Amino acid sequence: DAMLHHCIRLEEGAELTLFETGPAAARFNKVMEVEVADRAGFHHVRAQGRDHERRAATHIFARLGEESTFKTFTLTVNGVMTRNECVVELTGDNAVAHVAGACMGDGDFHHDDTVFITHDAVNCESRQVFKKVLRNGATGVFQGKILVKPDAQQTDGYQISQSLLLDDDSQFLAKPELEIYADDVACSHGSTSGAIDEDGLFYLRARGLPRGIAEDLLTIAFIAEAVQEVEDEALQELIVARVEAWLLRRRG
Predict the structure, then answer these.
(1) Share of the chain above pLDDT 90, in %
(2) What is the reported pTM?
(3) Alpha carbon distance 46, 33 (integer Å)
(4) On the CB side of 156, how many CA atoms lie within 13 Å of its CA?
(5) What is the average per-residue pLDDT within 9-18?
(6) How far is residue 233's CA from residue 240's CA, in Å, rounded to a whole number?
(7) What is the per-residue pLDDT across 76-91, written as a single tens digit (0 to 9) for each?
C-alpha cells in the first residue's frame, strides 16, 4: 500500500511540466495540491498502466490565479479499480483549466473519472475531455460538473465524455452537470456511447488492413481528442505508443 501527498506552488509567471509514470503499489492513494499564481502555467501528464492488479484513487485539488493556465491529462490502462478525481477553482480573471483523460479497459476493470470545476472569476475557460475504450465486461464512469458563480460572467465551459464499447458486455455510466448562476456564459456538455464505426472499419478493410489492425486504428482515432490536450508533442507520442502497445498485447 502507498499514500502520497504532493504540494506544488507555482509563483507568478512560472511554468512547470510534470510527467508521472511508473508503478506505485497494488493499492495506492495519491493527492496533489496545486496553487497556480497569476500568469503561471502548470502542465501535468500522468500514465498509469503497469500494475494489472492495481486499485488506485488519485486526487488533484487546484486553485488558479489571474491569467493562469492549468492542464492535466491522465492515461489509464490495466488495473482492477481506478478513480481519478480533479477539483479545480478558477479564482482569477482570464484563467484557463483543461482536464482530460483516456482509459483502456478490459475484463475486470472499473474506471471512474470525477471532475468538479468552479468558475468564480470573469472570462475564464474550462474544458473536460474524456474518452474510454471498454471491452469484456469493463465498466467506465464519468461524473463531471461545471459550477458558474453569479459574478463569473463571460465563462466558456466545455465538457464531453464518450465511450467506445467493443462488445455488448461492457458499460459506460455518465453524469454530466451544469450549474449556472451567471447570464453571460457559453457552456455545453455531451456524452455518448457507441461501437466501432462500421463504415470506417469497412473502408480500412477494403484497403487491405486486417480487422484487428483496422479496429486499433479506429480506437486510436477515437481517443485522439483527449490526447491532443497534451501540449508537449513528445509526451503525446509517448501516450499514443503506450495505447498502441496495449492494443497489440490484447490482440496478440
Answers:
(1) 75
(2) 0.94
(3) 15
(4) 10
(5) 97
(6) 11
(7) 988 899 999 999 999 9
Q: Cell for 219?
A: 480506437
State the number of CA atoms in the 13 A half-sphere of 146 facing the CB: 29
Q: Which residues of 84-123 are buried (b: 16+ CB within 10 A; e: fewer)?
A: bbbbbbbbbebbbbbbbbbbbbbeebebbbbbbbbbbbbb
Residue 33 amino acid letter: E
- Alpha carbon 53 to its chain centroid, in Å, reads 21
Q: How far apart are CA 243 and CA 75, in angstroms?
A: 9
User: Residue 189: which of 180, 198, 199 has the closest Cα?
Assistant: 180
Structure confidence at residue 164 (pLDDT): 95
What does the pLDDT look like over 172-223, one tens digit per residue? 999 999 999 999 999 999 899 999 889 999 999 998 999 889 989 999 999 9
Is 106 within 8 Å of 137 (Cβ atoms)? no
For residue 31, the one-letter residue type is V
Is 121 within 8 Å of 133 (Cβ atoms)?
no
